[in-house]
């Protein structure tokens, strides 16, 4: 199964923009498996640096996870102030404490204009970005979180498998 | 296993402890039938959790989704409440697996339904079917492609 649409303007990217390996994660901020994958992905980014490009797309299971949607909106709202990754990291590092109020305290901690953050958090365009990500995930064959795509193809495995595969292919 | 072009066999199964659902009640709408082995097992739960998030997408295609397994109606009720599912789970319980057998997706050895998907059109004809390996959640991209085809 392949990634639809391909990585584009709307995506949040980290790492080498000319990297030969492009990794896309579909994730849910309240999903414990995504929380467990987070430090491994950080390790992957540290190990491979500019050799990889990492993209995160939202796939909140909001019926199963009460704060998944609002957390996704919070990261997108932070992106409006160029702090997507700061918020993304802060949420995963404090996943256990996730709540509406806690997202605002994270916003303050990472130095966002909190009033603007509140406006952006609830903006229709923010919600639409998250929903568009979700729909693209479904179209691409995402069946749970986290799901990974490597160079546009679905990767059957978790973050640890991804690490092992990368170690092998860059040797 | 029944394939595209086959007539979808009629059934009448419990959807709640006191209410049965018939396939023929859905004439005029598209129907997605998701057969799965059992409530509570981790893969199924992900699959049902995913469909639960997708109801508005299915709605866009005038489609209703129903899960089917051999679990009892009380088991389904507890599972639905626990996972906050907003679509019916049908109980293919007595005679056990009869509907799964009619669709050709009963696993005699395990005594459970196989993991299989059917998209049925508004005239009750199967438009698409898919058998997934039991351990793998088939996702929903195939369902959406089939529905898109139907509403073209």
Keywords:
heterodimer; A: 171 residues; alpha+beta; Glutaredoxin; five-stranded mixed sheet; 5 strands; 15% strand; globular; B: 152 residues; alpha/beta; two-stranded antiparallel sheet; Peroxiredoxin_AhpC-typ (chain B); oxidoreductase (chain B)
At a glance:
Chain A is α+β, with helices and mostly antiparallel strands. Chain A is 50% helix and 15% strand.
SSE inventory with pairings:
The complex is a heterodimer of chains A (171) and B (152).
Chain A: E1 12-15, E2 21-27, H1 32-48, E3 52-58, H2 68-79, H3 84-93, H4 100-109, H5 114-122, H6 124-140, E4 147-150, E5 153-155, H7 159-169
Parallel strand pairs in A: 2-3
Antiparallel strand pairs in A: 1-3, 2-4, 4-5
Helix pairs in contact in A: 1-7, 2-3, 2-5, 2-6
Chain B: E1 12-16, E2 19-22, E3 30-35, H1 42-53, H2 55-60, E4 63-69, H3 73-83, E5 89-91, H4 98-102, E6 106-107, E7 112-113, E8 116-120, E9 126-131, H5 141-150
Parallel strand pairs in B: 3-4, 4-5
Antiparallel strand pairs in B: 1-2, 3-8, 6-7, 8-9
Structure write-up:
The complex is a heterodimer of chains A (171) and B (152). Chain A is α+β, with helices and mostly antiparallel strands and 171 residues long. Chain A has a single domain, classed as 3-Layer(aba) Sandwich (Glutaredoxin). In chain A, 50% of the residues lie in helices and 15% in strands. Chain A has helices spanning 32-48, 68-79, 84-93, 100-109, 114-122, 124-140, 159-169; strands at residues 12-15, 21-27, 52-58, 147-150, 153-155. In chain A, strands 1-3-2-4-5 form a five-stranded mixed beta sheet, sandwiched between helices. In chain A, strand 2, helix 1 (32-48) and strand 3 form a beta-alpha-beta unit. In chain A, helix 1 (32-48) runs parallel beside helix 7 (159-169) and helix 2 (68-79) crosses helix 6. Chain A starts with 11 loop residues before the first strand and ends with a helix. Chain B is of the alpha/beta class. Chain B has a single domain (12-134), classed as Glutaredoxin (3-Layer(aba) Sandwich). Chain B contains five helices and nine strands; from the N terminus they run E-E-E-H-H-E-H-E-H-E-E-E-E-H. Chain B has helices at 42-53, 55-60, 73-83, 98-102, 141-150; strands at residues 12-16, 19-22, 30-35, 63-69, 89-91, 106-107, 112-113, 116-120, 126-131. In chain B, the strands form three sheets. In chain B, strands 5-4-3-8-9 form a five-stranded mixed beta sheet. Chain B starts with 11 loop residues before the first strand and ends with a helix. The mean pLDDT of chain B is 95. Classes of the chains: A alpha+beta (171), B alpha/beta (152). The interface between A and B is medium-sized, with 14 and 19 residues.
């Amino acid at each position: 199964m392949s990634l639809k649409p391909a990585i584009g303007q709307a995506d949040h990217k980290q790492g080498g923009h000319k990297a030969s390996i492009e990794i896309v994660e579909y994730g849910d901020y309240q999903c414990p498996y995504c929380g467990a994958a987070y430090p491994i992905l950080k390790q992957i980014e540290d190990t491979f640096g500019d050799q990889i490009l990492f993209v995160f797309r939202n796939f909140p299971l909001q019926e199963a996870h009460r704060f998944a949607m609002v957390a996704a909106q919070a990261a997108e709202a932070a992106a409006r102030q160029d702090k997507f990754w700061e918020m993304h990291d802060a949420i995963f590092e404090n996943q256990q404490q996730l709540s509406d109020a806690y997202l605002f305290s994270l916003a303050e901690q990472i130095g966002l204009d909190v009033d603007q953050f509140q406006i952006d958090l609830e903006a229709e365009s923010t919600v639409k970005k998250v929903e568009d990500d979700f729909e693209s995930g479904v179209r691409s064959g995402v069946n749970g979180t986290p799901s990974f795509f490597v160079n546009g193809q679905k990767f059957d495995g978790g973050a640890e498998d991804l690490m092992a595969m990368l170690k092998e292919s860059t040797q | 296993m029944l394939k595209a072009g086959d007539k979808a066999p009629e059934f009448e199964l419990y959807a709640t402890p006191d209410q049965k659902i018939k396939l023929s009640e859905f004439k005029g709408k598209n129907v997605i039938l998701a057969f799965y082995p059992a409530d509570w097992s981790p893969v199924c739960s992900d699959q049902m959790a995913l469909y639960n998030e997708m109801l508005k997408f299915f709605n866009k295609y005038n489609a209703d989704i129903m899960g089917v397994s051999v679990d009892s109606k009380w088991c389904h009720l507890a599972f639905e409440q626990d996972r906050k599912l907003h679509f019916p789970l049908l109980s293919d319980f007595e005679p056990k697996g009869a509907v799964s057998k009619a669709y050709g997706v009963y696993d005699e050895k395990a005594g459970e339904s196989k993991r299989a998907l059917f998209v049925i059109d508004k005239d009750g004809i199967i438009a698409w079917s898919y058998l997934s390996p039991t351990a793998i959640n088939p996702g929903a991209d195939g369902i959406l492609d089939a529905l898109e085809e139907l509403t073209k």
